Structures are given as C-alpha cells and as structure tokens.
C-alpha cells in the first residue's frame, strides 16, 4: 500500500469507521485506522462493521488488511485511478449482494454507501440482508421516508426497495439500495419553513398483529404530540409484515417549508405499544420547541454531504456524533465551521472535498 492517512478510533464507534471508509473512497486516499471502535465495550470489527468494510472493498477492488471479526487495526486503499493511470477515477456501478449474517444494521451500511453516488460512473444496486429495524441505527422507514427525500432535494438520486423486514435478534431483512450517478448541490438548511404536515409510519411483525401493535403505536404518538404545534396528519400508514423475529417500529416525519425531520422508536419486549409512539412523539415535541430545520440524528448524517457540496446547516445540538464526524472531516482537509446560536448550532463548509475524476 502507498502512504496512508493515519486515523485513531480510540474514542469513537462504528460511525467513525464507516465515515472514514466513505471519505477514503471519495478522495481516493488510503487510510489506516487503529483502535477501531475503541470506546465500545467490545472494540474492533463486529459483523455489521466488517460488512461495510468488505462491501466498500468489493465496490472499488480495494487493497485491504485487517478484514476480520475483532480486528482493531485495518488498512484500506481504494485505488480508484483514472483509465490513463493518473488522478482520481470514478466508481463503476453494478449489482452486488451483502449478507451481514446477523441482525446488524442494513440501514447503516446503506447510509455509508449513499455519498458514493457522487463518484459513480454507472448505476449501482446493492442488496443487503440483515436488520432493518434494530437498536442504535435508523429504522428502515426513517431511511426511506426522511433521509432519502431530504438528500434528493440536493441532487443525490437514490431509492430503497424492501423485500422483507428484519428485527432483532434474527435479522433476515432484505433491502436493495439503488444509486445513480449524482451531482450534489450546495446545502442550505438554516431556517425551518412553515409546518406542512405529519406522516406516521407504524409497522408490526405478523406475530404481533393480533395485539394491534401498529395501530396502538400510532395512537400513542398522536395522543402525545403537542396539539399547539398545529400539525396536520397527512399520512397514516400501518403495516403488518413477515419477519423471522417479532418486532415493531414507528417513524414520525414532519414536513416543513425547507425540509423534513424524523423521529422514531422501536418496540421492545415488555414495552407497551403506546409507549413506542409516545417516545417518538416526545422527540418530535422537543424538535418543535427549537428552531433547527433538521432533527438531531440527521444532523450528523448530512455532514459528509455538506463536506462534498459545501453550504450551511442549522442543527439542534452538537452531539458526540457531530463532534466526531466534524473532527474526521477536518482530518481529510475539510474546513468545518461550527457556531453555537440561540440553543442551536450552525455548521458550515466553505472548502469542500475534491472528489471525482
């Protein structure tokens, strides 16, 4: 391998790894990561992290070292050279299949792949088998109905097809992410527009249908939402689905004049279905009390796109994930500004990543 950018993950988790790999491919720059997931009780690569590494490597035929479960040091060289052997070559598309092998998050893998649309030379289709609605990751309907619609506004052409859901502990869900070559426009998300509507997506596995879990989740959310906000319910979708494991999830989407924001909760053994809806509604109510146009989870997810296209974004809070991702972007030469204003923060990028052929 050529000289690599040295990165230390001792105070970070899987997000640091996924973002570093995406940036490595986007900039065609080798990286060496030490202390992978160093701040987790079980550091090193777990199944879902290994799946991201192996997928990235397969997409660009990368040179990789340390691609094994438990590895705490990895080296990754994308090697995307132009046809004439000079400069940054684009990424060829194609059709791929990835089996995480556990209930590891399929949505986190898809999230890691989304920015690659900006260097694609042809359409890319990746079918992922794993967990679609599992803890510590965006539920599938957040990815489909909040993340994708928002980034489409700025030029990323992406779609997600669902074959089946996968809840913890068996996973077994299957989704297909489709990307086409895209050009990101500068992102400006500093003001929230007028509230335009509310979408509720509530899902239950077949094994929970006789308890009306999906309906009770939705009712719990509606009863808890602050009526003073004046939100109009525009879509209520309750779905019963086949899945290897029992499970449920609820996602609220708030549409406003400049974007969308999402809030979610997962069902758990012993948790009343109504409480699932209430948890998502509580997060929505906190968002409505503030002034940011994006929710706290979208804040860090959009940072790579911001780094690619430049722009400004107001976020609800500077979370650990935001700080970690900003630090990583700066390590790749991105000039990231962060200003705290009136209980929110504004992230800005004036010097974006230099990617593509």
Automatic annotation (TrEMBL):
SUPFAM superfamilies membership: EPT/RTPC-like, RNA 3'-terminal phosphate cyclase, RPTC, insert domain
Reaction(s) catalysed by this chain's protein: a 3'-end 3'-phospho-ribonucleotide-RNA + ATP = a 3'-end 2',3'-cyclophospho-ribonucleotide-RNA + AMP + diphosphate
Signal peptide boundaries: none
A biological process from GO: RNA processing
Subcellular localization: Cytoplasm
Alphabetical keyword list: ATP-binding, Cytoplasm, Ligase, Nucleotide-binding
EC number: 6.5.1.4
Primary subcellular site in the record, as a coarse category: cytoplasm
Source domain of life: Archaea
Keyword Cytoplasm: yes
Positions annotated to bind ATP: 297-301
Function: Catalyzes the conversion of 3'-phosphate to a 2',3'-cyclic phosphodiester at the end of RNA. The mechanism of action of the enzyme occurs in 3 steps: (A) adenylation of the enzyme by ATP; (B) transfer of adenylate to an RNA-N3'P to produce RNA-N3'PP5'A; (C) and attack of the adjacent 2'-hydroxyl on the 3'-phosphorus in the diester linkage to produce the cyclic end product. The biological role of this enzyme is unknown but it is likely to function in some aspects of cellular RNA processing.
HAMAP family: RTC
Protein name, as recorded: RNA 3'-terminal phosphate cyclase
Organism: Natrinema pallidum
